[in-house]
Design brief:
By secondary structure, this protein is an alpha+beta fold. The chain has 2 helices and 10 strands, in the order H-E-E-H-E-E-E-E-E-E-E-E. The protein has 2 domains: about 90 residues, no CATH class; about 80 residues, Nucleic acid-binding proteins (OB fold (Dihydrolipoamide Acetyltransferase, E2P), Beta Barrel).
């Protein structure tokens, strides 16, 4: 949901605050943590370094706003990238030790080539390839966004909870592949014990 919203940015004119429903909005912290805070402090008081009132014109404010909006996005992207790399290192160590941990996961999308699952405990999304579902031959139903076993009629749908373990890590593409560790999808909103036997083929 958060990713679907527009990202915040600094701007010289008041754009309002959507969440607070305020047409005019300004925020800054004390003590100062960001350069934007420093600009607001200077405008409200005096510039201690210059020993005089600080009254930048609108062109200066616009330039500063654009600059710090860009640098904050770069910093946020770098933070997300570094966290993703550490997660990949964690799963790669599990593969190297040949003792992968079993995670609870939720199916967030179903495609003809497999299931996209999200691990809430690890905050990562990965693929369960359809070829790893070795207990049956699964057919994709695009209208219902589900995979259905041709013989067993077992269904994998968006929102189902499953147990998965890592089977492949691609550090270059920043991708992790998983396999199902339980017999099938668990009931929505319910969690089973973690002592299930792993049963899946490698992707």
């Amino acid at each position: 949901m958060l990713k679907s919203l527009k990202r915040a940015r600094y701007f010289p004119q008041p754009l309002g605050h959507y969440g607070l429903a305020k047409p005019n909005y300004l925020h800054f912290t004390s003590p100062i943590r960001r350069y934007a805070d420093l600009v607001a402090h200077r405008a409200l008081g005096r510039d201690a370094a210059l020993r005089r009132p600080y009254h930048p014109d609108m062109s200066q404010i616009a330039s500063i706003a654009e600059h710090i909006s860009t640098t904050e996005r770069i910093a946020a992207d770098a933070e997300m990238e570094s966290a993703q790399m550490k997660k990949l290192e964690f799963f790669q160590r599990q593969l190297d030790q040949r003792n992968p941990q079993i995670f609870r996961a939720a199916i967030v999308d179903v495609r003809n080539y497999g299931l996209m699952v999200e691990l809430p405990d690890a905050l990562i999304t990965g693929l369960v390839h359809v070829s790893s579902l070795a207990d049956d031959f699964y057919l994709f139903e695009p209208a219902r966004r589900q995979l259905v076993g041709r013989r067993s009629r077992k269904r994998f749908r968006i929102g189902d909870e499953v147990r998965v373990f890592v089977v492949r890590v691609d550090a270059f593409k920043r991708q992790v592949d998983f396999a199902i560790a339980s017999e099938g999808p668990m009931k929505r909103g319910r969690s089973k014990g973690s002592s299930m036997k792993s049963k899946a083929a490698s992707v």
